[in-house]
Amino acid sequence: MILESDPLAPYAMHPDDTAGRVHPEPPHRYRSPFQRDRDRIVHSSAFRRLSHKTQVFTGELGDYHRTRLTHTMEVASLARTMARALRVNEDLVEALALAHDIGHPPFGHAGEDLLDERLAGHGGFNHNAQALRIFELLEVRYVEFPGLNLTREVLEGQRRRADKTPDGALRSPIIEVQIVDAADSIAYDAHDADDALELGLLDLGELRELELWDEAARRIENRYTNLTPLELRRATIHELLDWQVSDLLGVAQARLGELDLPNAEAARAAPIVATVSDEIADKKRELEEFLFNRVYRHPLVLQHRTEATAALGELYDRCVADPERVPPHYRQVSPGDARRAAADYLSGITDRYALEAYRKP
């Protein structure tokens, strides 16, 4: 069993090996660089606002389903578990997980698509790239430097998410980054289905037609009898998470044993190790295709998406037409560029604030 006191593995990113920060700072007396990153992210304004930002379903549909913040916390929980089991840097993994969704605008991917459309020909909009702007320029927390001055390892992890070019895909990320990417996928596959069931957009019978869900449910039914539908649903969600995490750990441990990586840098030249098996990957793709067609494209979801897009689009147009609507800080970061200043400002607000601002003259 891996215990909290177990030392980091050779292939982990050790705190002493960090590439440091853009703006040099003296070491802290009792916190590692990655602990400081985690704390800076948690105390940032952008992190707090995730509590009122759409994950998949807007607040108009109820209060059970995940927000960007609750999704982020679930990803961090899964990622920490995998990090500890693989003896990699848990503090770095937690910082990466807590940071991974910060660049999202209000109204989820609907808001992102709207801003990307408005900024066509002007650099576009991507939530992963926006997170870097927040970390390096937009967040105002310290006297000595703009942004949060996170370690280069956290910035690199976020930059990989933003870089979709072929060159960016050739070099493997450090294992801590791999773990967060996997945790994100594991979390939203299970939890988006759970939220859709709660909202009545799906029923259990439909999900039982999918291999991944059905096998997880059968495992629960073999373990327990006379479960209510709600008990079965919740137990199946737990099984989906545990099964995928266990599968990934088995694959990762086998690959790490074969590769015998001497340090974190060696992981960059090696194939990806933190991934589920081919068998699970095939079943996950089936579930994700189903969720896309039956949940993300559900008429009720699309209706709210249309309404949200109209509100954010109107706010953007107002800000570009009258730059004084944009707070001075954003105009100072992008002087003379009303489009980017408007996008920086609006991407940082919450769903609730956006709707209130839209309804004002």
TrEMBL record:
PROSITE patterns (alphabetical): HD (PS51831)
One example GO MF annotation: dGTPase activity
Keyword Hydrolase: yes
Domain HD positions: 68-189
UniProt KW keywords: Hydrolase
Pfam families the UniProt entry points to: HD (PF01966), HD_assoc (PF13286)
Record's keyword annotation contains Hydrolase: yes
Positions of the UniProt region annotated as Disordered: 1-34
One Gene Ontology biological process: dGTP catabolic process
Superkingdom as given in the UniProt entry: Bacteria
Basic and acidic residues: compositionally biased ranges: 14-34
InterPro entries listed in its UniProt record: dGTPase, dGTPase-like, dNTPase_2, HD/PDEase_dom, HD_domain, HDIG_dom, PHydrolase_assoc_dom
NCBIfam families membership: dGTP_triPase (TIGR01353), HDIG (TIGR00277)
Family: Belongs to the dGTPase family. Type 2 subfamily.
Annotated protein name in UniProt: Deoxyguanosinetriphosphate triphosphohydrolase-like protein
Origin species: Posidoniimonas polymericola
